[in-house]
Design a protein that fits this description.
- By secondary structure, the chain is an alpha+beta fold.
- It folds into 2 domains: 2-82; 85-216, Heat Shock Protein 90.
- Helix content is 60%, strand content 17%.
- It has helices at residues 2-52, 55-82, 85-90, 92-103, 123-144, 178-189, and strands at residues 109-114, 148-156, 159-166, 193-198, 206-213.
- It has a 5-stranded mixed β-sheet with strand order 1-2-3-5-4, with helices on one face.
- Helix 5 links the parallel strand 1 and strand 2 (148-156).
- The radius of gyration is 21 Å and the shape is globular.
- 21% of the residues are buried.
- Bound molecules: adenosine-5'-triphosphate and magnesium ion.
- Adenosine-5'-triphosphate (ATP) binds next to helix 5 and helix 6.
C-alpha cells in the first residue's frame, strides 16, 4: 500500500516535471520568436526613422535603439535559460561551462571543475544535473552575496557527484522554497540524493550536493 502510494507520488512528480519542461520550451520559443522578432522589426524601423531625423532627435533615437538592443539580448538570454536545448546542442560539460560563465559577474567568480569523460549519463540524469546546477547557481547569485562559487562534477566510486559551493552568507536557517524543493523532486526522479547545507572547511557559505548512484547512469 505504502509502496503503491510512493510509486504513484513519484509518477505524478515525474509527470509534473515533464509538463514543466514542456511549458518552459513553449515560453522560450514564444519569447524568442514572437517578442524577439517584433523587437527586431522595431529596431529596423527606428533605424530608418533615425536616418531621416534632424540631429538632436537622431541622437535620442540612437539611445532608444541601444535600449531595445539591450532588451533583445536579455530576452535571448532568458530564452536560452528556459530551454535546456543547450544540453542537446553543446553536451552536458559545455552546457555547464556556459552556465558558469553566464553567472560570473564583476562581483562573483564562478569556477568550474568538470570531469572530462562524462558522456553516457542518460538524458534524464543530464537534465537533472543541469537543472540542479542552474537552480544552485541562481540561488548563489540571488541570496548568497558570495565572491566565489565552485561548480564541480566528477565521477566517484559510487556514481556521479555534483557540487555547487559558495563562500557567501550561508543559509542562516532559511526555509526551503520552491527552488530547493524542485531540486529534491528532480533528484528523487533519478534515484539521486540531494543535500543542501553549510559548505564545510571554509566556515561560511553553502553547498548543494547531488549524488547520482552508478546504477542510474546509463538510463
Ligand atoms: N547559496 C545560498 N546562500 C544563501 N542562502 C541561500 C542559498 N540558497 C538558498 N538560500 C536560502 O534558502 C531559501 C530557499 O531557497 P529556494 O531556492 O528554495 O527558494 P528561493 O530561491 O527563495 O525562491 P525560488 O522558488 O524562486 O527558487 C532562499 O530564499 C535563501 O534564503
Ligand atoms: Mg531559488
Amino acid at each position: 500500500m505504502l509502496d503503491r502510494l510512493e510509486r504513484e507520488r513519484a509518477t505524478s512528480a515525474a509527470r509534473a516535471l515533464s509538463a514543466q519542461e514542456a511549458e518552459r520550451q513553449r515560453i522560450a520559443a514564444e519569447l524568442h520568436d514572437e517578442i524577439g522578432q517584433t523587437l527586431t522589426a522595431v529596431l529596423l524601423e527606428l533605424k530608418r526613422v533615425a536616418d531621416h531625423a534632424p540631429p538632436p532627435a537622431r541622437d535620442e533615437l540612437h539611445e532608444v535603439q541601444e535600449t531595445i538592443r539591450t532588451s533583445l539580448d536579455e530576452i535571448r538570454r532568458i530564452a536560452r535559460r528556459l530551454r535546456p536545448g543547450v544540453l542537446e546542442e553543446l553536451g552536458l560539460v559545455s552546457a555547464l561551462k556556459a552556465l558558469a560563465a553566464e553567472f560570473s559577474t564583476a562581483g562573483l567568480t564562478v569556477r568550474h571543475a568538470l570531469d572530462g569523460d562524462l558522456t553516457g549519463l542518460g538524458r534524464d540524469v543530464e537534465l537533472v544535473l543541469y537543472r540542479v546546477a542552474q537552480e544552485g547557481l541562481t540561488n548563489v547569485a540571488r541570496h548568497a552575496r558570495a565572491r566565489a562559487a565552485d561548480l564541480r562534477l566528477s565521477w566517484t566510486p559510487d556514481g556521479v557527484d555534483l557540487r555547487i559551493r559558495d563562500d557567501g552568507t550561508g543559509l542562516r536557517g532559511a526555509a526551503e522554497g520552491a527552488g530547493i524543493q524542485g531540486m529534491r523532486e528532480r533528484a528523487l526522479l533519478i534515484g539521486a540524493e540531494l543535500s543542501v547545507g553549510p559548505a564545510d572547511g571554509t566556515g561560511t557559505g553553502t553547498e548543494v550536493h547531488l549524488r547520482v548512484p552508478a546504477s542510474d547512469e546509463d538510463r
